[in-house]
Amino acid sequence: MNYNVTDNLPAFEQFADLHESSGLIKSKKGTYTKEQLFQAANNSWYCISIYDQEQLVAFGRMISDGIYQSLICDVMVHPNYQNQGLGKLVIKELLKKCKEEDIQTIQLFSAKGKQHFYKKLGFEERELDAPAMVFKM
What we know:
Blueprint: E1 4-6, H1 12-22, H2 24-27, H3 34-42, E2 46-52, E3 55-64, E4 69-77, H4 86-100, E5 105-108, H5 115-120
Parallel strand pairs: 4-5
Antiparallel strand pairs: 1-2, 2-3, 3-4
Helix pairs in contact: 1-3
């Protein structure tokens, strides 16, 4: 298929629909509204949106200091379009932006059970003696 790839943020309705259909909204810790999740995406350093015709079918975003660190967030693919290489395309586009900006430290939080997908793309799990940590309010 021929997809349209853009670094523009999608319309709210399309973003909310993809968040819902991909199941990503259910995995969020906390009680965020669709509007809040869209605002978070709007505050991103960089995002990739992939469309089939006019339908948003894949999305991913990064937050970054723009110098040496970035964090990949909210990679989602519509269930009808999974296993077609779109998740891989989202990651490759995000990594390409980091390379263009000479950002060398790229991190992500994987959804449960998706680590193997990111490993195939070159990501490594953190060392056990250097775990990621979380502070919850």
